[in-house]
């Protein structure tokens, strides 16, 4: 199967099915064309996933496609952006039809779930590497940045943290119990917080998605904002399966492993007080922003040194 | 060197140097933010280059960076788009400082030449694969498409074709003669036709950049437009070094090998007649669009079957 045939068979039907009026021209020409509504900015992010680095070898293609698009879409959530479309650049070792049809199915599922149209792409023979760029829009000048956190703001996270990190320990378990299944699901099928992110525009003072672990990602907010924070280990929300792990294992997952794609945001106590219950219920306050730089974690005696996922260090 | 350090050292200074007001937020946050001026559409294209497929192993990183950005920018030229910014997703086997500084230099050079700001990216350890997405703008609804060619339109190409294809035969020549040097230059440092493409808005009825060879790329225009064409082999412009090759070798390069990144456009005889000399001088009429589907090449007895570069077929 040639490149053009592969695109024709697997990706053009998907592009047609996911079309949106904002995508004036989809795949098939030299470029795609997107119309950005007046009063809005274009928001975009690119993410690469490499076999053996970001996902295990022989990982099911259907799940891989979902995870790849979820990871990219999560960056839109962190900006409060409305999702619009994405491009997919893919190198793969062979045009295996089973693999490709699974991949296309997972991608179409995820794209429909996240409201992202397929705008274009490139497919080449090579090692298995996926690069996805997602596009969204935000009202002009109102995208959520990492750099707006101020002293006395509350530090909040969405959902529960650490499940996806814990899942890595269970990936090879056959016939997993219900508990483990729910943890695995968080790894295989993450749900980017697109709606919540969008609702936090004009509310949060800063935001990031947790892809490298809370410690590293909150660290990015603090560095970008020129502030510090104290958080309480006991307040970090973890799922009930994780809560049953011994010692500080659950908190360690939450602090150091990514792939949950929850949001970490800061907001003023006033804005927290004004949040409608349906938004507040999705967030947990875990600490407070302070003038003094650095991240202090009360009730945490974990090993020093681990600081999130750094792609070059992790392989060296 | 970790991922963050690598970005800080090589790509952040470049991003700062190439900044443009349309890029509201560059690298360093979850997303980049681009403002698309009112009355304009966003135009974008993604291209992947794989070591050993699109460029030779141990290819100099400075030249690689230029070629990669030129190939991507050429798609903007083919739409008549004004260049704005790009993202770079890169997997590389090791953070070699010589390689990286050469790459960053070549990329900054090319970016400044083409008017593209660095908006963001992703770097990961893996096999050497580059994915570049370029962004441009066109006045709303006026992007040059492949699908507008009509019977009786003239078929034109810019510059000379085939040099980059011929260069592949000479890549390992040491101390090349002047002739060969000029041909190699076309391969190593292609110049996307950004200005010409922009000037052809509202003039050309269709356009494509020649990345896979004239035969394949003109074929894309004809298929997208539902028409055919007859071109004359003798009218295909080739450089003087290529003109000295035996038999139909030069025409064969022009028809079947890409990487020149010239434009192929169609336009009505009336529009051709009205073209200012400075634009007309950059184009050569090589044939005419016809109702009958298919591409006919007068004065060409070359081998059938070769039909441009298809990434999966080419490796099988």
From TrEMBL, chains A, B:
Binding-site positions, Mg(2+) 1: 47, 122
Catalysed reactions listed for this entry: thiamine phosphate + ATP = thiamine diphosphate + ADP
Residue positions binding Mg(2+) 2: 47, 75
Binding residues annotated for Mg(2+) 5, in chain numbering: 212
Gene3D superfamilies: PurM-like C-terminal domain (3.90.650.10), PurM-like, N-terminal domain (3.30.1330.10)
UniProt entry keywords in alphabetical sequence: ATP-binding, Kinase, Magnesium, Metal-binding, Nucleotide-binding, Thiamine biosynthesis, Transferase
Record GO terms (molecular function): thiamine-phosphate kinase activity
Binding residues annotated for Mg(2+) 4, in chain numbering: 30, 45, 75
EC class name: transferase
Record pathway: Cofactor biosynthesis; thiamine diphosphate biosynthesis; thiamine diphosphate from thiamine phosphate: step 1/1
Biological function: Catalyzes the ATP-dependent phosphorylation of thiamine-monophosphate (TMP) to form thiamine-pyrophosphate (TPP), the active form of vitamin B1.
Protein name from the UniProt record: Thiamine-monophosphate kinase
Organism whose genome encodes this protein: Marinobacter salinisoli
């Amino acid at each position: 199967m040639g490149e053009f045939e592969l695109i024709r068979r697997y990706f053009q039907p998907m592009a047609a099915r996911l079309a949106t009026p904002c995508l004036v021209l989809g795949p098939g020409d030299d470029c795609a064309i997107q119309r950005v509504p007046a009063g809005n900015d274009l928001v975009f992010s690119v993410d690469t996933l490499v076999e053996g680095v970001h996902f295990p070898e022989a990982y099911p293609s259907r799940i891989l496609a979902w995870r790849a698009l979820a990871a990219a879409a999560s960056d839109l959530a962190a900006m409060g952006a409305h999702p619009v479309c994405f491009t997919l650049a893919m190198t793969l070792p062979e045009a295996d039809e089973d693999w490709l049809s699974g991949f296309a199915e997972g991608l179409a599922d995820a794209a429909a779930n996240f409201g992202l149209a397929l705008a274009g792409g490139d497919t080449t023979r090579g090692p298995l590497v996926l690069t996805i760029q997602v596009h969204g829009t935000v009202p002009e000048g109102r995208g959520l940045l990492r750099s707006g956190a101020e002293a006395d703001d509350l530090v909040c996270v969405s959902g529960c943290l650490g499940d996806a990190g814990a899942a890595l320990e269970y990936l090879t378990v056959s016939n997993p119990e219900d508990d483990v299944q729910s943890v695995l699901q968080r790894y295989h099928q993450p749900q980017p917080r697109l709606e919540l992110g969008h609702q936090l525009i004009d509310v949060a003072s800063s935001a990031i998605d947790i892809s490298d672990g809370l410690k590293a990602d909150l660290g990015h907010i603090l560095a970008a904002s020129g502030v510090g924070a104290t958080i309480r280990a006991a307040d970090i929300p973890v799922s009930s399966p994780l809560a049953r792990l011994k010692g500080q294992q659950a908190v360690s997952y939450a602090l150091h492993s990514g792939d949950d794609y929850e949001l970490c945001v800061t907001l003023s106590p006033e804005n927290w007080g004004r949040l409608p219950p349906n938004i507040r219920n999705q967030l947990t306050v875990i600490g407070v922003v302070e003038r003094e730089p650095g991240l202090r974690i009360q009730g945490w005696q974990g090993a020093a040194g681990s600081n999130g996922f750094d792609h070059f260090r992790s392989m060296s």
